[in-house]
Structure to design on (412 residues):
């Protein structure tokens, strides 16, 4: 009895030890649908063993048997050494969520031993924590878009446009396949904290879709910011007010197409920057990736085409180096806008960054003259009425107020 009692204690200790060790080998415990995932379990107590898939019932579904060698099945494979086994799930699916287990392959009555409580998530942001100053990748579903743009959290800046190919900018690059796109942040900064989004590049006014709630961690302090950072960043790195002669006329008609030409010979890759909000609209690095409302060419002089001019396009359009972090945008064209004949917007002869007079709250000169004339006429009518209804004192008989031709306005 003493021997059996000791054996039971030893078995219990080994089992508890196995569970404790295996809990730490389930990395994160959260797997992403459609992506590969690995689990590591202690198999030192078994000569042969079987990996069991979660089923939600009393028994697990056997997937991979390792008895001498590991025999893979479709979607699952495993390796082993003297103490541990690694199970690889090639593409995680809902049936893989739950508690994975290992059981003895040589004992038909053996019960499974839990290895990893595996949870599932649709989030494509692995872990959601980026170390400041290190490289970090985000994967997003782009299957609904033929062209799309990665949007930075803190300032809504368009960083990488993929339409049809991906055009990198300083600090960011991206790849894509038929269903997903991977954004690589070269060096994580506070500007990258928050919800990264993807927006349709071919639809004007498309609403960005959240992909990843990202937080940042400082390596030196080992403290994690558990809430997204909200950082106020400038939309442009510098100012440049001179207009370039390659801006034809410098006046665009609202609602019509308009083109701007800029010298890009100093850049291997560049981005066109919108005046009013500093938004990166078209990236050319090396090819140009258009977005809704804008397209460009990548010749010695790059031509930006505004498909339909709006007030938001008013001001100094700029070009910025796409390969240099913190590069200062250079002014290319001072653009003013004018409306149609039924609703004309006048611009000053010396345009500023926003020169539409309606925006500045000015009235046309003709309107002011009309108002003055109307006031004079109203005052004249009032004077005539006062004279008409006021009888002169101490005078009897007919009193002629006004006589024009054969008409007489008289009082007695």
């Amino acid at each position: 009895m003493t021997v059996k009692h000791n054996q039971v204690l030893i078995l219990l200790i080994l089992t508890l030890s196995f569970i404790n060790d295996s809990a730490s080998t389930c990395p994160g415990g959260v797997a992403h649908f459609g992506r590969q995932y690995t689990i590591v379990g202690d198999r030192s107590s078994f000569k042969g063993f079987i990996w069991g898939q979660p089923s939600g019932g009393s028994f697990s579904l056997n997937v991979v048997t390792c008895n001498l060698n590991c025999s893979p099945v479709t979607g699952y494979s495993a390796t082993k050494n003297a103490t541990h086994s690694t199970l690889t799930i090639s593409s995680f699916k809902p049936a893989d969520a739950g508690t994975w287990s290992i059981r003895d392959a040589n004992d038909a009555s053996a019960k499974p031993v839990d290895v990893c409580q595996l949870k599932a998530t649709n989030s494509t942001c692995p872990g959601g924590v980026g170390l400041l100053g290190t490289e970090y990748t985000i994967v997003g579903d782009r299957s609904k878009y033929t062209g799309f743009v990665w949007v930075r959290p803190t300032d809504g800046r368009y960083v990488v446009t993929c339409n049809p190919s991906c055009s990198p900018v300083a600090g960011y690059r991206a790849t894509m396949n038929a269903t997903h796109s991977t954004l690589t942040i070269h060096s994580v900064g506070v500007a990258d904290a928050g919800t990264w989004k993807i927006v349709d590049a071919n639809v004007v006014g498309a609403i960005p879709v959240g992909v990843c709630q990202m937080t940042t961690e400082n390596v030196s302090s080992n403290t994690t910011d558990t809430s997204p950072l909200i950082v106020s960043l400038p939309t442009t790195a510098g100012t440049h007010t001179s207009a370039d002669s390659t801006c034809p006329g410098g006046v665009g008609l609202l609602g019509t197409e308009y083109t701007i030409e800029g010298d890009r010979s100093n850049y291997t890759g560049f981005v066109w920057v919108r005046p009013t909000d500093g938004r990166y609209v078209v990236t050319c690095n090396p090819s140009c990736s258009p977005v809704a409302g804008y397209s460009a060419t990548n010749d010695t002089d790059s031509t930006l085409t505004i498909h339909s001019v709006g007030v938001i396009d008013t001001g100094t359009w700029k070009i910025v180096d796409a390969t240099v972090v913190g590069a200062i945008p250079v002014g290319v064209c001072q653009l003013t806008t004018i409306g149609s004949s039924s609703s004309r917007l006048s611009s000053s002869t010396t345009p500023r960054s926003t020169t539409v007079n309606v925006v500045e709250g000015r009235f046309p000169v003709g309107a002011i003259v009309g108002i003055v004339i109307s006031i004079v006429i109203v005052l004249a009518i009032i004077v005539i009425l006062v004279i008409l209804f006021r009888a002169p004192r101490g005078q009897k008989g007919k009193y002629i107020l006004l006589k024009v031709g054969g008409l007489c306005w008289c009082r007695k």
